[in-house]
UniProtKB/TrEMBL annotation:
Interval of the full protein contained in this chain: 467 to 747 of 747
Domain of life according to the entry: Bacteria
Biological source species: Solibaculum intestinale
Record-given protein name: EAL domain-containing protein
UniProt domain EAL: residue ranges: 24-278
Cleaved signal peptide residues: none
Subcellular location: Cell membrane
Length: 281
């Protein structure tokens, strides 16, 4: 019943919070079973070589196929899994699915493209994950050069020392490290100089706004040429228009990923897209 004393609004508000807590509890009760039941699905989005327009890689992006609720995107559940720690299990599961699929491609005599897997910031404080990942890759006999790990730029500032250790260990194993979402936060160009990363992923927002004005163009151009001099490959993410693609190509960006080329798709569709055939998994 609506009253003008504001009580109704108050009850409505606490109802909302209660619903959210119930929903979180509900998810926590179901997430492990969901993993067992194969409800978490890997989608692949192609990375395109800007020079040749060929597919030269892919990024694995998780989706949750919740019975009765449809396909849910990572933004809806990853923050919660980072809070309750389940992200470590989920990321390992995604990594294993990717290795299995690479093995299938190798067994079919196809030439696999490297696949990038996202890591959560939580991994920085659980470095033993590297050994686990290494064992999984070895189990499926996947050459480490086919694996890239993506870590978002925003974690680096607070964890510089840990981050340096991480890169060193990953390189010992042979996995490439990709710096995700570069330019989204307060990136420092100095950082680029210090960090032995292999790949830089320019955040969508970084060139979406910036590519429209001259000062912005100068900054992006500088970042890309600096990266190139440091032998870091550059990928632009979220490329949606031919104008963006042409600009990025002109300034020497190596690869692009975005809806202009393809959306993230189920692995079977990705195989049809890249290899021209669907495989029986
Ligand atoms: P991200 O790693 O930066 O991934 C790129 C995001 O941009 C993806 O969103 C992708 O679908 C979207 N995208 C790609 N091209 C375009 C485009 O042209 N336009 C627009 N508007 N968007 C585009 P998605 O799949 O919703 O993933 C969101 C974030 O969730 C990812 O950002 C990543 O940080 C995280 N994430 C996804 N999968 C995993 C995972 O398996 N583990 C972890 N820890 N995080 C993941
Ligand atoms: Mg990523
Ligand atoms: Mg990104
Ligand atoms: Mg992003």
């Amino acid at each position: 019943t609506s009253k003008d004393d504001g009580k109704g609004a108050c009850i409505f508000y606490s109802d909302c919070i209660r619903d959210r807590l119930l929903e979180e509890k509900d998810i926590e009760n179901h997430m492990r079973a969901a993993l067992q039941n194969g409800e978490f699905v890997v989608y692949l989005q192609p990375k395109i070589e800007l020079g040749t327009r060929k597919v030269s890689g892919a990024e694995a992006l998780v989706r949750w196929n919740r019975p009765g609720k449809g396909l849910i995107g990572p933004d809806q559940f990853i923050p919660m899994f980072e809070r309750n720690g389940f992200i470590l299990e989920l990321d390992l599961y995604i990594f294993r699915q990717v290795c299995k699929r690479l093995r299938l491609w190798l067994d079919c005599g196809l030439t696999p493209v490297p696949i990038a897997v996202n890591l959560s910031r939580v991994h920085l404080h659980n470095m033993e994950f590297i050994e686990k990942y290494q064992r999984v890759a070895e189990h499926y006999r996947i050459p480490p050069r086919l694996i890239e790990l993506e870590l978002t730029e925003s974690v680096v500032f607070d964890n510089f020392k840990i981050f340096m250790d991480l890169v060193r260990e990953l390189h010992q194993v042979g996995f490439a490290l990709s710096m995700d979402d570069f330019g989204a936060g307060y990136s420092s160009l100095n950082l680029l100089k210090e960090l032995p990363v292999d790949i830089l992923k320019l955040d969508r927002e970084f060139f979406r706004e910036t590519a429209n004005n001259d000062r912005g163009k100068t900054v992006i151009c500088g970042v890309v040429s600096m990266a190139k001099e440091l032998n870091i490959r550059v990928v632009a993410e979220g490329v949606e228009t031919e104008v963006q693609a042409a600009f990025l190509k002109k300034i020497g960006c190596d690869m692009a990923q975005g809806f202009l080329y393809a959306k993230p798709m189920p692995m079977g569709e990705f195989e049809a897209y890249v290899f021209g055939r669907k495989l029986d998994a």
